[in-house]
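Lab meeting, action items carried over

1. Structure of the two-component assembly. Owner: GW. Status: complete.
Input record:
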Amino acid sequence: DVKVTQSSRYLVKRTGEKVFLECVQDMDHENMFWYRQDPGLGLRLIYFSYDVKMKEKGDIPEGYSVSREKKERFSLILESASTNQTSMYLCASSGTGEYSGNTIYFGEGSWLTVV
Amino acid sequence: AQKITQTQPGMFVQEKEAVTLDCTYDTSDQSYGLFWYKQPSSGEMIFLIYQGSYDEQNATEGRYSLNFQKARKSANLVISASQLGDSAMYFCAMREGQDSGAGSYQLTFGKGTKLSVIP
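Predicted assembly:
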């Protein structure tokens, strides 16, 4: 069974803390994504990566960075957490080549609260 | 301009009735894909149905069907015989540029529609 695993389901962090959200996939996928989800705004892309050590900014990269040192792992980093980064974060992965329906897989989400 | 527009923030439907969730999209690409996801309160994103821009027939998956009207750029989700377990957020999403290489595998999402099924 395919799997995208996010390391933390629920986190509470203080303003100014450095926060790491980890995502691991076991499907040997090239592409990995970090989305942020807020009520009334849907999912917005923060960063994505199409290969190891490669990264591209999404629609809302400000305040975030990412790391992809290994193919299976894609980390989202909040250098100095702020209260407006309180949100639900979703990781996803997909392969290349086949262009069809169920080829994008999501993790279960990480609920981050910054106090 | 929004690439994916879902105009219904919330919808109610009687159990066993059919319901249509609206989605319009905006793209200049000839090749693209349209997705619908269901997100229960637990937060997981559940893939429901996919329509490719070159697919001539509307996609169907069990009780889900996608009413694809290419000229109108609409991709409405139809759920037949609603069940209480269908109560959730529903997101329409698009993937553009199949042949654009890097970055062409990301999804752009609408803001979602919250569906409530009434017993």
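2. GW to write a short summary for the group page. Key points so far: DSSP finds no helices and twelve strands in chain B. The mean pLDDT of chain B is 91.
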